[in-house]
């Protein structure tokens, strides 16, 4: 069944005293659940075991109370009390013969200690380096602090063993772990034997690993995760120094785990980073040490993976996002089901779960972090309830995901789409600069639907109420999407923006349909996700003289959560876009826009020939309401339920739409939707949650 080209991915490989069953290595990744939702996180890891990963890691685990990164929710191992939660996770990981790994993080110069109120400890006394510039500084560790920290690592290692983990990864990448803080001349400015030369800067890592080996090394493997290049300029731990460090300490860990730069560098979205983007930085490192090497690169193609191993660049294929988008990726390669792989689109919505301390979502895999909460399995779904068929109206992410999952349940499904092309918003957004990989949302679903005999697809079918009533489907799923507003209503303006004169206004829909302004253009971004920045880039590419105006202090503000805000700003500067921050558009004038300062309301004027208005969207819910108004006719038409989902219910990111489509399909005929209950719903929580146990005293 398996293509022999991929056999190399299934060869076992030793890591210290242990052997991984194959080369699929799920590197540590956050999930926004962490210590708040430990059973949800454990079940998510358990699904990866079932999906065939050879090595599975936790997210970063704060290993001592003197270093933590509140508000971000990861795992904690501060005392024995934390062991049962972690053991639950380790056991879930090991269910199908995978090795279970735990990543230990001592955050040093990255840990503001907002929760424990401890003074942060770091190699040198500097301000804490976080996303939020917390006004906190660290104290430089003295020799006794270093002795203590070495002991805390040993204590943590013993607890990891009690928790039944196989591997420990020491975090020294992304600027987040103390090992990097010691290795880098930027964060280690010591003049004692722990600072100065590379040998001295390596001392801390050598000592900790030696101590841990003494404590648990007979049965556990110890890996070290370092960044391939710190990417912070001359003083940073450069790629050349990383190579010197590995050559100098060739036998140090049982495996080298190579990440890249800051987290933004390492988890670059597809808009800015290709698959295998780190290859040049990794190549040759494997020859410097006898220990195996794992590297990442948003690998979704088995050919690229096999090439990485065959050409001797990597021993293990490290995946975080590809394992989120498809936890069954290894199994599908093993079973020769390459076309069934649900490829990561590189949108970084999963990361927003961590950045916002919510629980993570995945655009491609709506079951992510719902394995325990809702009992959703990415590859299994219950057979249908007592109705038989569904008409899905609209073939965007919501409609296609609903149709795919409904067909697996065994419903007869018809998908009606007004346009000739299926895919809704992604059919158009995939054509925007940098967003081509987003088309995978539609491609994956259309291919899967195409394999099913019970789905009929009807392009060019804009349905009216009468047609829907005539068709005789039992369930109507309305996923008709949304349109961008031209009137400026969003956050600055909750009522239409005042307009004097006839300045041409283009919406993102106009631009995506190919109607582009020319000359001097103002892009007004009061949406704050990617669209404003992308359209400014596109207009500049097309030769417009572009000024992007936004009331926010940042271009594409919300993309801080997808780790691409800096890259977007850089790209717009390179494209020649003028950026005007902290500024609204008070009104549209015949010859330009009247601006206002967000803080003082001081008015200004920017002359332009046209405005691209990136405001909010308005749901296409007319068909739904018209059908509701005809509820008296439903019984005669054989209709049992009419449900509004996705952007047509409330516009949001694509991941919200795939979740809505999946949820609709899972829950149809389970008695939770208003039409199944006579209008009542919401009295019970629709998912399980974990509640902190009350202390006895
Ligand atoms: P979502 O993100 O919620 O899936 P999209 O906007 O991506 O929403 O997709 C909605 C799709 O529904 C669009 O392709 C649109 O052409 C289609 N559509 C809208 N109204 C109708 C209708 N009355 N009949 C059939 N298709 C429709
Ligand atoms: Fe990939 Fe986006 Fe899913 Fe993250 S949310 S795993 S980037 S598809």
Automatic annotation (TrEMBL):
SUPFAM superfamilies cross-referenced by the UniProt entry: FAD/NAD(P)-binding domain, FMN-linked oxidoreductases
InterPro entries on file: Aldolase_TIM, FAD/NAD-bd_sf, FAD/NAD-binding_dom, NADH:flavin_oxidoreductase, OxRdtase_FMN_N, TMADH/DMDH_FMN-bd
GO molecular function, one term: metal ion binding
Residue intervals of the FAD/NAD(P)-binding domain: 389-624
Cofactor(s), by name: [4Fe-4S] cluster; FMN
Origin: domain of life: Bacteria
Residues that span the membrane, as ranges: none
Keyword Metal-binding annotated: yes
Limits of the NADH:flavin oxidoreductase/NADH oxidase N-terminal domain: 9-339
Alphabetical UniProt keywords: Flavoprotein, FMN, Iron, Iron-sulfur, Metal-binding, Oxidoreductase
Family membership: In the N-terminal section; belongs to the NADH:flavin oxidoreductase/NADH oxidase family.
Protein name as annotated: Dimethylamine/trimethylamine dehydrogenase
Organism annotation: Gemmobacter aquatilis
């Amino acid at each position: 069944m398996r293509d022999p080209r991929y056999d190399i991915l299934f060869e076992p490989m030793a890591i210290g005293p242990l052997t991984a069953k194959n080369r699929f290595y799920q590197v540590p990744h956050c999930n926004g659940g962490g210590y708040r939702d430990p059973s949800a996180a454990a079940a998510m890891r358990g699904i990866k075991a079932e999906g065939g990963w050879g090595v599975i890691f936790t997210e970063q685990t704060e290993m001592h109370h003197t270093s933590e990164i509140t508000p971000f929710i990861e795992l904690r191992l501060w005392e024995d009390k934390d062991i049962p939660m972690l053991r639950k996770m380790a056991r879930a990981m090991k269910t199908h013969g995978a090795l279970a790994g735990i990543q230990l993080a001592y955050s040093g110069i990255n840990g503001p200690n907002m929760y424990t109120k401890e003074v942060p400890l770091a190699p040198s006394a500097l301000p804490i380096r976080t996303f939020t510039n917390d006004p906190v500084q660290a104290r430089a560790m003295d020799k006794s602090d270093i002795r203590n920290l070495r002991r805390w690592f040993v204590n943590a290692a013993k607890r990891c063993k009690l928790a039944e983990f196989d591997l420990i990864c020491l975090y020294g990448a992304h600027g987040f772990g103390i090992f990097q803080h010691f290795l880098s001349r930027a964060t280690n400015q010591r003049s004692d034997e722990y600072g100065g030369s590379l040998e001295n800067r390596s001392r801390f890592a050598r000592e900790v690993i030696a101590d841990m080996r003494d404590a648990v090394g007979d049965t556990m493997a110890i890996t070290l995760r370092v960044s391939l290049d710190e990417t912070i300029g001359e003083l940073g731990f450069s790629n050349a120094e990383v190579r010197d460090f590995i050559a100098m300490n060739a036998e140090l860990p049982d495996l080298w785990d190579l990440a890249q730069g800051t987290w933004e560098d390492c988890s670059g979205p597809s808009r800015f980073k290709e698959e295998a983007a780190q290859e040049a930085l990794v190549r040759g490192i494997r020859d410097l040490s006898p220990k195996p090497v794992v590297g990442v690169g948003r690998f979704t193609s088995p050919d690229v993976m096999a090439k990485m191993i065959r050409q001797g660049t990597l021993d293990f294929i490290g995946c975080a996002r590809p394992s989120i988008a498809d936890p069954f990726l290894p199994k599908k390669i093993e079973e020769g089901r390459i076309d069934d792989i649900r490829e990561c689109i590189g949108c970084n919505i999963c990361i927003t779960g961590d950045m916002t301390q919510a629980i993570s979502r995945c655009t491609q895999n709506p079951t992510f972090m719902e394995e325990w909460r809702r009992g959703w399995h990415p590859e299994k779904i219950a057979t249908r309830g007592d109705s038989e068929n569904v008409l899905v109206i609209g073939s965007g992410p919501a409609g296609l995901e609903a149709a795919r999952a409904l067909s697996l349940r065994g419903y007869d499904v018809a998908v009606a789409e007004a346009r000739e092309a299926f895919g809704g918003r992604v059919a158009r957004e995939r054509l925007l600069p940098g967003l081509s990989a987003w088309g995978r949302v539609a491609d994956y679903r259309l291919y899967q639907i195409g394999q099913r005999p019970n789905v009929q697809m009807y392009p060019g079918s804009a349905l009216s109420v009468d047609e829907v009533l005539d068709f005789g489907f039992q369930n109507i799923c309305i996923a008709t999407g949304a349109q961008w507003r031209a009137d400026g209503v969003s956050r600055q303006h909750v009522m239409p923006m005042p307009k004097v004169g006839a300045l041409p206004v283009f919406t993102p829909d106009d631009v995506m349909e190919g109607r582009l302004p020319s000359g001097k253009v103002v892009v007004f971004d009061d949406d704050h996700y990617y669209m404003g920045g992308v359209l400014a880039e596109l207009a500049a590419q097309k030769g417009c003289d572009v000024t992007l105006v936004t009331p926010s202090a940042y271009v594409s503000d919300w993309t801080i959560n997808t780790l691409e805000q800096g890259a977007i700003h850089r790209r717009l500067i390179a494209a020649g876009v003028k950026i005007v921050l902290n500024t609204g558009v008070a009104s549209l004038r015949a010859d330009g826009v009247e601006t206002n300062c967000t803080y003082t309301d001081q008015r200004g004027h920017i002359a332009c020939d046209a405005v691209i208005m990136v405001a909010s969207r308005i749901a296409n819910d007319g068909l739904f309401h018209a059908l509701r108004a005809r509820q008296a006719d439903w019984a005669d038409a054989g209709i049992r339920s009419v449900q509004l989902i996705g952007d047509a219910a409330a516009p949001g990111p694509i991941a919200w739409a795939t979740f809505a489509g999946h949820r609709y399909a899972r829950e149809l005929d389970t008695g939770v939707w208003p039409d199944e209950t006579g209008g009542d719903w919401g009295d019970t929580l629709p998912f399980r949650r974990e509640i902190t146990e009350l202390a006895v005293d």
